[in-house]
């Protein structure tokens, strides 16, 4: 399970990182988009530091933390913090132009930085655990991680035109949780019964169905679309144009190169 977990998390976290640069570019211009790299590196380093400190105090921690149940907890936390951090980023009143005159903007920026660090923290935690638990398979772990990251770099190129930034973030963040729960459901009942295995499989299927439903529902339901839609900075020309009476966006086209909004106005 650990290698499949690393592949999916590497794919998901790199795609998430790429899409966050797009979200920052749209919502805050491109100046803060480079901060995403430092967020990811900070979180990966923090996860390794935590495990290093833990290794000095507890023996055998890597074996306990790489069992099926702890791994599922970490994957769930990755998905939950990924969704939470994106929702907060998309709706927090962060305006870095006001940093010199509004001290509260520094608090908003810190909140965004720390929340966005959490999914990368849990992703790095699992990868670090794999290296600690299976030192003899370092080459395999590295290959799986790099392969997943490479696939994650290609995913926006393929899916951005179909889903857009917000819905694609939902998809990639939910992906590791759903697939790994379904794959590992039969192995979860070690020493248990068929009934408990069936219960786990049912819960996993339900989570997958909810995730797919949320993504598909974003196409038609305004409240979901409002949750994932990335609003451009109020200083951008598009925001100025939309202030004219009877002006609306009639079409939005998204690709790896950028986003184009077609506007209709009297």
What proportion of the residues form beta strands (DSSP E)?
A: 5-15%
Element-level helix/strand string: HHHHHHHHHEE
Calculate the terminal CA-CA distance, rounded to whole Å.
58 Å
Q: Which residues sit in consecutive blocks of at least 5 with pLDDT less than 50?
A: 188-192
Give the integer mean of the pLDDT values. 82
- Radius of gyration equals 20 Å
Structural class: mainly alpha
Strand order of the largest sheet: 1-2
| Continuous helix count | 9
Number of strands: 2
Helix content: over 70%
Largest sheet: 2 strands, antiparallel
What general outline do the C-alpha atoms trace?
A: globular
Provide a short characterization of the protein structure:
It is built from 9 helices and 2 strands, in the order H-H-H-H-H-H-H-H-H-E-E. With about 270 residues, it is mainly alpha-helical.
Structure description:
The protein is mostly helical and 266 residues long. The protein is 73% helix and 6% strand. The chain contains nine helices and two strands, in the order αααααααααββ. It has helices at residues 2-28, 35-57, 61-65, 68-91, 104-133, 138-184, 194-220, 222-228, 237-241, and strands at 248-255, 258-264. The protein has a two-stranded antiparallel ribbon. A hairpin with a 2-residue loop joins β1 and β2 (258-264). α1 (2-28) packs antiparallel against α2 (35-57), α1 runs parallel beside α4 (68-91) and α4 packs antiparallel against α5. The longest helix has 47 residues, at 138-184. The N and C termini lie far apart (58 Å). Residues 188-192 have low confidence and may be disordered.
């Amino acid at each position: 399970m650990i290698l499949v977990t690393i592949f999916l998390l590497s794919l998901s976290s790199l795609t998430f990182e790429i899409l966050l640069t797009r979200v920052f570019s749209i919502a805050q211009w491109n100046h803060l988009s480079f901060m995403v790299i430092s967020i990811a590196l900070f979180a990966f380093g923090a996860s390794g530091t935590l495990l290093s400190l833990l290794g000095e105090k507890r023996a055998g921690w890597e074996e306990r933390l790489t069992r099926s149940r702890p791994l599922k907890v970490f994957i769930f936390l990755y998905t939950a913090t990924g969704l939470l951090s994106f929702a907060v980023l998309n709706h927090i009143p962060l305006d870095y132009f006001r940093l010199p005159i509004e001290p509260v903007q520094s608090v908003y920026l810190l909140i965004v930085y720390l929340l966005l660090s959490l999914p990368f923290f849990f992703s790095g935690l699992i990868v670090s655990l794999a290296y600690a638990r299976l030192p003899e398979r370092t080459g395999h772990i590295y290959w799986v991680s790099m392969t997943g990251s490479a696939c994650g770099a290609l995913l926006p190129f393929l899916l951005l035109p179909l889903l857009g930034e917000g819905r694609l973030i939902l998809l990639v963040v939910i992906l590791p949780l759903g697939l790994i729960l379904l794959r590992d459901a039969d192995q979860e009942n070690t020493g248990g019964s068929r009934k408990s295995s069936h219960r786990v499989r049912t819960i996993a299927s339900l989570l997958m169905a909810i995730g797919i439903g949320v993504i598909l529902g974003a196409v038609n339901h305004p409240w979901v679309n409002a949750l994932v839609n990335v609003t451009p900075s109020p200083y951008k020309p598009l925001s100025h144009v939309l202030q004219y009476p009877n002006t609306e966006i009639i079409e939005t086209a998204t690709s790896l190169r950028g986003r184009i909004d077609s506007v209709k106005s009297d």
